Amino acid sequence: MINKKKIINDFYGKGKHDVVPYSKKFTSGKEVNIAKYSGLVSVIKRRSSSEIADDWSKNIFGNSFSETKYTAKIPAVIARHTYVLETILSKLNLLNKEVCDFGAGEGDFLTMLKKKINCKGFGIEPSKKNCALLTKNKIKNFNGTIEEFYLLNKKKKFDVGTIMWTLCNTSNCFEIVSNASNLIKKNGYIVVAESSRILVPFKKPLQMYFGKNNPDLHPFHFTKNSLSNLLVLNKFRPVFINRYIDSDYLLIIAKKIDRIEEKNLKLDKAKDIKEFFKRWFKESQNYKKEVVK
């Protein structure tokens, strides 16, 4: 019998954990952890949601894409937004629906959506600068975190919510999805997209994966099981999971229901995660002299 309380504790960093093998070599000695019960990979010692959101807003978002900076206005990010958009349109009817992008960034996805189909797009975004871009593109938005929006708009309900490459960068991904669940109509949908990196074929050297920023700016590292569990525990039923095994992306579409379907909870074995990182480190040594510009 799977213990859902223990899985939830792992998302909150309260369960027993180990250190990801070799991770401290790339993070200035800071730990990235593996939960012993569920196998979740996360940074246990992390700052608050507001501190991480503030760091992203002030220091990470910019006009370039590098090991320390981020912008969605490059071909690689445009490609992944296009992938998510076209996948949604092939699975869901968005015509005249209200769609909220939780963590809307610079608004590129909502702008693409607006050009593609007649629906009502809305963005929740903590960066004031990014919200100015959303407003400039005539997209309604809220400047703040998802938690702040929910506290002020508890009766608001959207047909579809999207969370793209955002959960991995939050201090409390469980609360994010919980609040998102409260903001989505019964029988509505949530679409979550993340990078597919754990327990899949290696897609980049480990030294390029961890990067140079504080690891708590990217505290969660999802597998298919851990991301599915996050949704199931917040009363969503996954109805579509992409072919993440050989894709750069992990994408799940889930339907809002009125209960937790425990039969859909699945654990990753912590020992399998540890062995995966050991193999990843060993393979990455073949590319440690590579220079990528």
Short description:
This protein has 293 residues and is of the alpha/beta class.
List SSEs in N-to-C order: HEEEHHEHEHEHEHEHEHEEH
Structural class: alpha/beta
Can you name the CATH architecture? Answer: 3-Layer(aba) Sandwich
What would you call the shape? Answer: globular
Mean pLDDT: 91
CATH class: Alpha Beta
SSE arrangement:
Elements: H1 4-11, E1 17-19, E2 33-35, E3 41-42, H2 49-60, H3 75-91, E4 98-102, H4 108-116, E5 120-125, H5 128-136, E6 140-143, H6 146-152, E7 158-164, H7 173-182, E8 184-195, H8 206-210, E9 220-221, H9 224-232, E10 236-241, E11 249-256, H10 270-284
Helix pairs in contact: 3-4
What brief labels describe this structure?
alpha/beta; four-stranded antiparallel β-sheet; seven-stranded mixed β-sheet; Rossmann fold; 293 residues; 20% strand; 10 helices
Q: Mind explaining what this structure looks like?
A:
The chain is of the alpha/beta class and 293 residues long. It is 34% helix and 20% strand. The chain is built from ten helices and eleven strands. The longest helix is centred in the N-terminal third of the chain and has 17 residues, at 75-91. The protein starts with a helix and ends in a 9-residue tail after the last helix. The model has no long low-confidence stretch (mean pLDDT 91).
